[in-house]
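Complex record, two chains
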Amino acid sequence: MSDTYRELNPPVRLLLGPGPSNVDPRVLRAMSAPLLGHLDPEFVKIMDESKRLLQYTFQTENYLTLPVSATGSAGMEAALCNMIEPGDTALVCVSGVFGERMCDIVERCQGKLLRVDAEWGHVVQPEEVEAVLKQNQVKVVAIVHAETSTGAHQPLGDIGRLAHEHDALFLVDTVTSLGGCPVKVDEWHLDVVYSGTQKCLSCPPGLAPITFGPRAVKALEARKTKVQSWYLDMTMVQRYWSQERFYHHTAPISMNYAFREALRLVHEEGLEARWERHQLNHRALLAGLQAMGIQPFAQEGHRLPSLNSVRIPEGVNDARVRSRLLLDFGIEIGGGLGKVKGQIWRIGLMGYNATRKTVLTFLSALEPILRSEGARFEAGAALPAAEKVYG
Amino acid sequence: MSDTYRELNPPVRLLLGPGPSNVDPRVLRAMSAPLLGHLDPEFVKIMDESKRLLQYTFQTENYLTLPVSATGSAGMEAALCNMIEPGDTALVCVSGVFGERMCDIVERCQGKLLRVDAEWGHVVQPEEVEAVLKQNQVKVVAIVHAETSTGAHQPLGDIGRLAHEHDALFLVDTVTSLGGCPVKVDEWHLDVVYSGTQKCLSCPPGLAPITFGPRAVKALEARKTKVQSWYLDMTMVQRYWSQERFYHHTAPISMNYAFREALRLVHEEGLEARWERHQLNHRALLAGLQAMGIQPFAQEGHRLPSLNSVRIPEGVNDARVRSRLLLDFGIEIGGGLGKVKGQIWRIGLMGYNATRKTVLTFLSALEPILRSEGARFEAGAALPAAEKVYG
């Protein structure tokens, strides 16, 4: 093999897609700390601290709270495959790609699948969930809090209450919401909640934070069959993350360093301040975009602050705009997934990137590109509109 | 929450356990490179290079060669759950913890399990495998090449030939051998092979290199049921790792940086030189240990160069010795797992750590500890015995 491989030298990007987001330099530096063994007393201390920090981030006292050693999608699989045994009924709320993915996983777990659909960009209605719950014995109601494919922000209160009234577990995907808008696991009585690290927590992708409440733990303990995934089997993983420290698999040490540092930054800032920061920058971004004639895609009143989905203006070439943003300005934004491909852009303002500097940089780059695409709007209007929000 | 969390500051360890091993500073530095999106053209180039480097490391032309986005144990699960459908028969060769783990996973995949056992520390005999193959229609013969729990080095030639004579796929765990001793996927006709990053590749834990040969791909394509794990489903994962770049899950970007750099180091050194380096240091370590009266545990002629299992001398306190190595010298070695707990030590000389400096440092630290434990041997004999091997 005569190939030569050069030194790694990735360009610097402003990551405003649906994740990964940029991370604080402190998080990158944490990964270059020397490795410890996965049973080293010093690593165990780091695990304990990460767990406490994650409990804070999830706003929970659940002891079964830990990062799954794989990315957010594995968090989804871990949540579902630990709760669903063959023949169990799961009701999945679907309004985008990630709800669809939940359905796929439920079927792979040999669960009986029921679904309630909403139009993409809209949220699922409690009445429709209630109608299904009344007709069926459902074990798990699963829902996506922040649908990354549409930018819709799903309210959880009523659906969670209905799930519990019908003795079902309430399982929630917070991949794109945790750290960017309120996720209050205990106050909202959420039973199983998972997330990813690379969105509003601003940690590189590679771990999936997860938490199981008392009802979920009871369901786990009452299983008649083994969890079908050995790797994601929480009855075993928890023995490593508890004081027992029973070896299961080798923890990804460096990713756990990054995770602790990212959560330490969340804790330093404070969740409330972080949520407000995401809201403010979301409003400024939308104001700037609207000044260029760009309209939001997600339903009014249900728009995620962390992921801004907008309709691509008529006549504007999706691929060319995204390519010019990337190549001329080093800025990544997301295109549409699945049935909205070519129709929307997804602009993430997550964690480290939810700042005034980012918003203004992005608007300044987008404006000349859009004008060269023939989009008609008042030149120079975007920045003042955004600045007005900052006051 | 009034807790305070200090800056991450892990102590420097010499990691001579069963993994993770220490890694080259270049690998740690690679992880602090700025993040790219998982569909960025620059990241795609990195994926392509990593794939070529991994093909070299596995000595294969298999196009379905990639790092699974989770640790080595997920590699085991990926290998088995992609090949085994409910009702399929798998013959698992068991001579330690990791063979046992394969059995557990086969059953979770609803496979029909047959097993051939060998005494721990010994290798599985081809005749015993043949006897089972003659009596049963077996789809997969699964075996551990380097049993991390015993230090035994399993020969693959005869068993692989028998598997193919009986139309079975040959599935091999090389978690502790890849990069430390020959693993020649194409020349040896191995159908599915997986590994971990944190052993002889000297990359932090977090990815599981895997490769599927033509027979395995055919079996994958002929499946009647979906792979039970969505996250590990190679029919989908491969679409992201092929030129199609179809989004499946967000790749762990920083871990992939580290992986490319670790493989680049393997490529720079050359596999043959690397295998020789592991052999030489293994012999020196054993010579030094034997000079202190310590005997190997694994069967003669079948000892792994990368993981040296030795019997704990009589009267010596296992936990105390390991604790003093760690606290007084910052050296980690492994204790016994499962049924050999308290009976053996496992001393890894993997990748970056397979050096003369490491061997001499370790022997120098162990000698005074063993003497204070009352072990009887000629003082000062260990280092010269090791040095003699280096010549």
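Note: The mean pLDDT of chain B is 97.
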